[in-house]
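Section 3.1 - Work completed
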Amino acid sequence: MGSTSDKISGAANKAAGNVKQAAGKATGSKKLEAEGKVQELKGDAQTAKGKAKDAVKKVVDKA
C-alpha cells in the first residue's frame, strides 16, 4: 500500500470507528463502543504509517 492509500484507509477507519463509538454510546452497547475505539486506533496507526512512508520518501529523494 502506498502512503496515500494508507492515509485514506486510516481516515476511513477513524471515521467508521467514531460512528461505531457514537452508536455504542447511544444504544448503551459497550461492545460496539469498544469496537469503535479499536477501529479508530487502527485508523490512527494507518495514518501514521502513511506519514512515515512520506517522510522516508522525502529523505530518499534528497539523497
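Second construct:
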Amino acid sequence: MRRIETPHVPHGWDAGLFFEETTGTLLCGDLFTAMGEAPALTEHEIVGPALAAEDVYDATCLTPATGPTMRALAELEPGVLCLMHGPTYHGDGGAALRDLAGAYEARLAVEGVRLHGPVTPSA
C-alpha cells in the first residue's frame, strides 16, 4: 500500500490517496464523487456522474496543478478505482483519470476567464 500526496486534489491541502500496487487498486477518496443510488460495483463510465456531482457540490479545487496531479495518478494505470462516494469501478482507471483531468482543465480555463478576463501574453 502506497500513500500518494495530492495537495488540493480533489480538495484540502492535506489530500492524499492510497494505491494498492499488487491489485492495481486506487482508493480515490472524493475523486469521482457520484450522487444517488448506484450499484456497489460498475464497469460503466464514471466521469459523467462525477462532473454532474461537481456541478452540484462545486467541491474540487480547480488549480493549475489539478490536471497534472490527476494525470500522474493515471500513469499508475489502475484497473480498479474505489470511490468514497460512488461505486467501485473496474476498467481503465488511467483513462478515467485522464478524462476527468481534461474536464477539470477545461473548467479551470472557463472559470479563469470568467473571474479574471482573458489572459494575454506580455510582450
